[in-house]
């Protein structure tokens, strides 16, 4: 055939494929979400294979390992004992609660990690909502919730969080949190806004992990999180949060919203984060357990697609293992090189 353009030339060997590869996921792109609970043993989470609720000591060990692997940040989620929860999420204001305690410890013991904390009431409320309810209990109250979120954000910053991440989807919370942080002198504390957070079924395993399942027939999280059908509205959310002072905007979930990540990337110059959420992680594990998908390659392809769509950073439960594999590979290649050079240059290495 007379075919001057043959794109397969670009795919003929691993070396050439590596040279023309447009996108790479590196440990520096990844943020590890971690769960911590008030108990003496780590506890597995059935719907999140390989993820545990850590004890304080175990979480500190993992944070040290993550830093050594080159993971720049962790997002820490507390699992609060049911007896500490109430309808107002009051325990969020207790400055000695589990989250503030662990943040102080991580900051002191692994200072090179960026610590991200959610700003939302769901770990602390007995109804599982991200805010407080109106008097008649029919809605999550926007403005009252924003006031509480400001206090949570300030507590988190005081404990040592580098980045506070409002995940509640109340209107006006980014500006209010920025003002509250600045008023307390936390002008360097960043705001990573869950700007386009969709009311998604993919959060199921996370709610198992922290015990924040909202009962059937109760208020729906769809009354504050976005409709999965809406992409234009996601841009409105992002531009508003940018104008209110967000430092980074996030799209969540990631895999089913790659179009949104791409259009957010084009609509703003802010760094864009994407959260590959619990259900995305769980479904890859489930299919692999059944022998229906290859675990590593599906995982890597899912992360690559999120990066390719325009995310600068990815929150993913796979962060640590991906970084470990990169490290193992790098070591393997290095030891080979050393062995090779030893024969030509004895005495070196
Ligand atoms: C809470 C919060 C949720 C997630 C992160 N922060 C759940 C929710 O909104 O119900 C989900 C993360 C995941 O599924 O991995 N505001």
Write up what this structure looks like:
The protein starts with 13 loop residues before the first helix and ends in a 5-residue tail after the last helix. The radius of gyration is 22 Å and the shape is globular. The chain has one domain (23-348): Aldolase class I (TIM Barrel). The chain is 41% helix and 15% strand. The protein has helices at residues 14-20, 56-68, 98-109, 142-159, 173-183, 204-210, 232-244, 258-267, 278-289, 295-308, 319-344, and strands at 30-37, 43-44, 52-54, 73-79, 114-119, 163-166, 190-197, 248-252, 272-276, 313-316. Mean pLDDT is 94; it is low at 339-349. It is an alpha/beta fold. α8 links the parallel β8 (248-252) and β9 (272-276). The chain binds ligand PBG.
Strand order of the largest sheet: 1-4-5-6-7-8-9-10
Mean pLDDT: 94
Major sheet:
8 strands, parallel, barrel
Question: Radius of gyration over alpha carbons?
Answer: 22 Å
Number of H/I helices: 11
CATH superfamily: Aldolase class I
Overall SS class: alpha/beta
Q: How would you name the oligomeric state of the polypeptide chains in this document?
A: single chain
Top CATH class: Alpha Beta
CATH topology: TIM Barrel
Shape: globular
List unreliable stretches of 5+ residues. Answer: 339-349
Order of helices and strands: HEEEHEHEHEHEHHEHEHHEH
